Amino acid sequence: MNIELPLAFEIISLVVLVLILAGDLILAFKRPHVPSIKEATLWVVFYVGLALVFALVMLLIADGEHAGQFLAGWLTEYSLSIDNLFVFVIIMARFKVPRKYQQEALMVGIIIALVLRGIFIVIGAQLIESLSFIFYIFGAFLLFTAWRQAFGNEDESGDDNRLVKFLRKRIDISDDYDGAKIRTTIGGKKLWTPMIIVFIALGSTDLLFALDSIPAIFGITQSPFIVFTANVFALMGLRQLYFLLGGLLDRLIYLHYGIAFILAFIGVKLVLHAMHANELPFINGGHPIEWAPEIDTWTSLAVIIGSMAVATIASLVAMRRRAARTPDPAPKP
Description:
Largest sheet: 2 strands, antiparallel
Radius of gyration: 22 Å
Distance between the termini: 77 Å
Number of domains: 1
Order of helices and strands: HHHHHHEEHHHHH
Strand content: under 5%
Strand order of the largest sheet: 1-2
Number of helices: 11
Shape: globular
């Protein structure tokens, strides 16, 4: 029996999430600082715990299928959000954003990401509802993305994108930051600060990541509510995670392989689902392909957790072996 989530639960959940995000945004702008490891850890634990409590509430008021879809979707988006952090680190370093103001930049980037993903979720839900063959396209796109993630050139993400280059030539930008402001006055002249370029770089990067993440989560659930809340929970606490992981990000050398495997798995799952519900006349005469298996939510959840665990453990083992091979500095005479 297919149990629907109560409308009141969906509305209350969205209102609470918006309030939490608003509070987090206000806190970031009112208290610009570099959070300590302890502070960042407590915030990350809080947001992860909040997501688990949300899944438990969903289990109690609906069923295990809804809770499982949320957990699988949240973990998928969370792993992709961690991948975002690699690019965020590059952007912050490239534009020399003072660490004190990186929180504000990250928070604005997260808000932009939520807006963009919300738009893509609405578009994706409409496409799925009206065009069943879209699963073939989503699946093929995720398989391509997985290949690019595993074997693509990561250095390209550090280059200024075309929009940033265009703005640099067209608008007057000051040499120095003025806090988190995007406009400043120097010698009586109004100028944009480098922060506007940072916001645009983060926003355009978020757009590219949304193109990958939304098809991925629609491979787990077709519920727009679960898709959106999984994205919100994945993005909440991302700025604290940025400061918590810090230098560890470049040491998780196999993380992108784990993410690539997850994307490839979901891509295959989407193609199999499209085959199972096939309506294209040039494939099997427009009839469903009965032998195509449907991969259930709990299998997806196990694959996602296993992939991230293997990639993380392999990275830590490689890091430890590399450290063991590095000779200790000679003692000073």
